[in-house]
Amino acid sequence: MLAGRALFRTADGEGLANQGDVVVVGAGTAHAFRAVGPEPLRMMCIHASPRIEQDFLDDDAAAEAGVTF
Questions:
Q1: CA 7 to CA 44: how far, in whole Å?
Q2: What CA–CA distance (Å, rounded) separates 43 from 34?
Q3: Sign of torsion, CA 57 43 4 13?
Q4: Alpha-carbon dihedral angle through residues 16, 54, 49, 45, given to the nearest 10 degrees
Q5: How far is CA 62 from CA 35, 40, 53, 59, 67, in A?
Q6: CB contact set of 43 (below 8 Å; sequence gap of 6+)
Q7: Running DSSP on this structure, what letter comes out for residue 43?
Q8: Distance between CA 59 and CA 47 in Å, rounded?
Q9: Which residue stretches, if any, does this entry annotate as coiled coil (predicted)?
Q10: What's this model's pTM, rounded to 2 decimal places?
Q11: Quick one: how far is CA 8 from the chain centroid?
């Protein structure tokens, strides 16, 4: 986390991340995040694979995975 504060959510639960924190989400794990608080959220995402593979879940799939806000 470069700046701001974020709420992260997976099917296992949720947590808050602040500036300086590192959040690790395993490959293939459905997750969501959103900024919380008055400061803009800035974060750096690092993917171990040589190319980013990303799927955006529609509302029904996100609800089924337990990652809706």
A1: 15
A2: 11
A3: positive
A4: -30
A5: 18, 24, 17, 5, 5
A6: 1, 2, 4, 6
A7: -
A8: 24
A9: none
A10: 0.74
A11: 5
Confidence check: pLDDT of 39 > 90: yes
**Could you tell me how many helices (H) and strands (E) the chain has, helices first?**
1, 3
CA distance 8 to 21: 12
H runs (alpha helix) in the chain: 59-65
pLDDT digits (tens, 9 = 90+) for 12-22: 999 999 999 99
The size of the chain, in residues, is: 69
Structure tokens at 60: 């029904």
